[in-house]
Amino acid sequence: MTSVQTGPYAWRARAGMITPSGVHEMNSFEFYLMAPPGVSVAMTSLHTRGWGPDIDSFVRLEEATQEIAERGVGSLVQAGTPHVVHREWPYHRVIVERINAVTNIPASTDIGACMDAMQRLGMSRVVLLSPFRDPDNEALTAYVSHAGIEVVAWDSILDHVVGATGNFMYDIATLPLSTVYAAARRLYAANADRADGIWITGAAMPSVGIVEALEGDAGAPVVSSMQAMAWTGMRLAGLSQRIEGFGRLVREF
Predict the structure, then answer these.
(1) d(C-alpha 72, C-alpha 69), whole Å
(2) Cis (ω within 30 of 0) for the bond into 37?
(3) Structure pTM?
């Protein structure tokens, strides 16, 4: 066990997460849906206001790492896939190296966790559902291709949002799970002859509540960002407990 047990609800382990923005209530809620007793999560933010090839989203990475390291965490995961994939491969390893220069706490990234999870489940040709637009989905597709994962089709959940306010974080964080489920199932059904799994990215978007049902109904493994980050964060903190109800990844651990 690598974690420091502190506080009444972290008597087994505490995972740490660095989110892109301060809007991370969905991240913590979905982590606690999956976490077994005695496991907690601590969060801080990079306070980013966007991403892209011309935006450095990681100016505050070392400062945020120090903040979270002081909170007794046994692992650390950087959330946010588009912030990484607009950089050259393998930028997710650069992020981990920068974290490791501040602390020796085991660390990973959102995109790294997703790639590890997809490889663990034997997913090599996937459909991608995200809350992002085409330039981001193109960058995601190109990035994971270096890990031997082909995105055969993608869809943006924003195309299915009814009554969008124009506030990106609010609109995706308040999506009904039924909208995410229906979009993912429809996307996979249209490409089932050439895909072997479903990847749902964008951890500020609700997802883990539909993973188990989606796997059963689509007949294919599912990896979502928050599911993969929780799996990675708990593993790096020394846990290996099977978790029921949130897909094959955490059920088999």
Answers:
(1) 6
(2) no
(3) 0.94
